[in-house]
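Weekly structure sync, notes
Attendees: PL (lead), two postdocs, one rotation student
Agenda item 3: pending single-chain targets
PL asked that the sequence for the first pending target be pasted directly into the notes so everyone works from the same version. It is reproduced below exactly as submitted, 159 residues in total.
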Amino acid sequence: MSDTLTPARPARRTLGSIAAAAALTAGLLGVSAVQAPQARAAACGGTTGVTVVVDFTAVGGGIQTGCAPGDPASGLAALTGAGFPYAFHPRYPGFVCTINALPTTCTNPTGSAYWSYWHAQHGGPWSYSTLGAGSYDPAPGDVEGWSFGAGAQPGVTAP
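Predicted structure, written out during the meeting:
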């Protein structure tokens, strides 16, 4: 048996080391991520669930809509139920830092760079939430909105 490594082994070891370091760093920083279950990629019909609109325009994406079936217990439950995983800011528990891993870097919240949280009825105007998404209990048939930036509402009418 030779002590010489094939070219593929150093790459595998390096990738394994990077993955382990990333997992350890996330654990040490306290980044908590919630994975989203399978959801419908369209608005809910009637009162079959809570429609969630996420405006990724400011972070290089488009506007996506999902349906959280049933009666989610909170805005965060609706977000994940509609297929959008999120992570809290490591220094501000409860403060949503990323949705669908965007933005790619979790920065300190500022007045011009955060996920704003909105409510609406189908086809109605958006209202800025006065409660955090973990405390708000949307009713089936409601529309929840998220938009990254300086607090602007999602860039579409509530579906």
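Discussion points:
- Confidence is low (pLDDT under 50) at residues 1-40.
- The longest helix spans residues 8-29.
Action: rotation student to compare against the earlier draft before next sync.
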